[in-house]
């Protein structure tokens, strides 16, 4: 097929891309992007990098999710960035809206209190909806039922390096359930009673904990307190069957029943991280050291040979891994 030679550009100036030979094996996996229509330019920015650095060669599909219908323009412009299948889903209101049984007076008071204290997104209801949705509902969406592994992508992130292997197959072949690039501390003001709630749940369900979990990633004192370490969930490569499984499902339902997504501002990052650290074997949590990644204001920039091999373009000196606010050293100590 001929490219559209336009505006008098002679044919001999064109060099069409060679057709890409697809890998023989693939995982049952998809990209997932929860976005608003206004996130169009930002998500295209991220998706274009994903395509160029990885997916052009692997052709994994995309699932876009939104609490409102996507516009025709949104669908058209994101679809033209890839040759892989792209699907668009609407989140049902019961997976998104603040539940009826939440005491609205108490929730309003909490939001006003957090706004006074300048807690980031402290006054936002939609942000809370988003956090609750990502914590316990994204993997239940109809369009995601056919998939096991997912890669979460947010607007305006950066992928610094070539990814020449299939991270989904790595997850599958090595029996991993959760992959991350950046870890850090959560704001105390957003989760005042989260750990207390987690401890209550664990007291009632001790059999759900495997012996070899990553408990010391989340607590420095044998469980007395939460050290607030979490994996930064704007990047995730994970196994949805882990979230769909008994332990995490019970865990999420318990947390949800306490109302902390609305009476406080529990984030999906600490909730996923606590779930992974408690209910998975520590060997099932993977640090994607070779994936150079930035979401403002932090980045993981691979070092040394990994930087070279990946043709990364981040400054190796600008790397969050062992900054004082990073939790990566606690992850290292697990092994
Ligand atoms: P931050 O990374 O914590 O600052 O939060 P973001 O604003 O990046 O939101 C996290 C993710 O949820 C992004 O992919 C957003 O596009 C998405 N998101 C946030 N709020 C909404 C919302 O109200 N509706 C939809 N559809 N997506 C949202
Ligand atoms: Mn973001």
Protein model, in words:
This protein has 335 residues and is of the alpha/beta class. The chain has one domain: Spore Coat Polysaccharide Biosynthesis Protein SpsA, Chain A (Alpha-Beta Complex). Helix content is 35%, strand content 13%. The protein is built from 13 helices and twelve strands. The strands form three sheets. Strands 3-2-1-4-9-6-10 form a seven-stranded mixed beta sheet. The chain has a three-stranded antiparallel beta sheet with strand order 5-11-12. Helix 4 (125-136) runs parallel beside helix 11 (268-279) and helix 9 (246-257) crosses helix 11. The model has no long low-confidence stretch (mean pLDDT 96). Guanosine-5'-diphosphate (GDP) binds next to helix 4.
Strand tally: 12
- Determine the N-to-C terminus distance: 53 Å
The averaged pLDDT comes out at: 96
Name the bound molecules.
guanosine-5'-diphosphate, manganese (II) ion
Structural class: alpha/beta
Rg to the nearest angstrom? 21 Å
Whole-number tally of structural domains: 1
Q: How many DSSP H or I helices? A: 13
Reconstruct the topology from this structure.
Elements: E1 29-34, H1 40-58, E2 62-66, H2 72-79, E3 86-90, H3 104-116, H4 125-136, E4 149-152, E5 158-159, H5 167-173, E6 178-180, E7 183-185, H6 194-204, H7 215-218, E8 229-231, E9 236-239, H8 240-244, H9 246-257, H10 260-263, H11 268-279, E10 285-287, E11 293-295, E12 298-300, H12 304-309, H13 328-332
Helix pairs in contact: 4-11, 9-11
Manganese (II) ion (MN) binds at residues 154, 234, 295.
């Amino acid at each position: 097929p001929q490219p559209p030679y336009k505006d008098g550009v002679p044919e001999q100036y064109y060099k069409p891309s060679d057709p890409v030979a697809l890998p023989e094996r693939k995982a049952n996996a998809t990209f997932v992007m929860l976005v608003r229509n206004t996130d169009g330019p930002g998500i295209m920015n991220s998706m274009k990098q994903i395509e160029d650095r990885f997916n052009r060669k692997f052709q994994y599909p995309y699932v876009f999710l939104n609490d409102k219908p996507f516009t025709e323009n949104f669908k058209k412009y994101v679809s033209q960035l890839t040759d892989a299948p792209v699907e668009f889903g609407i989140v049902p209101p019961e997976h998104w809206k603040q539940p009826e049984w939440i005491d609205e007076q108490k929730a309003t008071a909490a939001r006003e209190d957090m706004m006074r204290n300048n807690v980031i997104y402290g006054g936002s209801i939609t942000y809370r909806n988003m956090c609750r949705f990502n914590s316990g509902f994204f993997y239940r969406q109809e369009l995601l039922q056919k998939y096991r592994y997912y890669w979460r992508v947010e607007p305006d992130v950066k992928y610094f390096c070539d990814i020449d292997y299939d991270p989904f197959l790595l997850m599958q072949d090595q029996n991993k359930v959760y992959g991350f690039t950046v870890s850090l501390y959560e704001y105390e003001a957003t989760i005042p009673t989260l750990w207390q709630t987690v401890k209550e749940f664990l007291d009632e369900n001790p059999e759900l904990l495997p012996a070899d979990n990553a408990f010391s990633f989340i607590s420095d004192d044998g469980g007395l307190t939460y050290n607030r370490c979490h994996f930064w969930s704007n990047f995730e490569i994970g196994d949805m069957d882990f979230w769909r499984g008994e332990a995490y499902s019970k865990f999420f339902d318990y947390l949800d029943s306490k109302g902390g997504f609305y009476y406080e501002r529990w984030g999906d990052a600490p909730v996923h991280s606590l779930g992974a650290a408690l209910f998975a074997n520590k060997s099932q949590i993977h640090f994607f050291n070779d994936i150079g990644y930035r979401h403002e204001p932090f980045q993981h920039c691979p070092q040394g040979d990994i930087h070279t091999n990946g043709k990364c373009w981040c400054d190796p000196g600008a790397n969050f891994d062992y900054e004082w606010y990073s939790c990566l050293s606690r992850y290292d100590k697990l092994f």
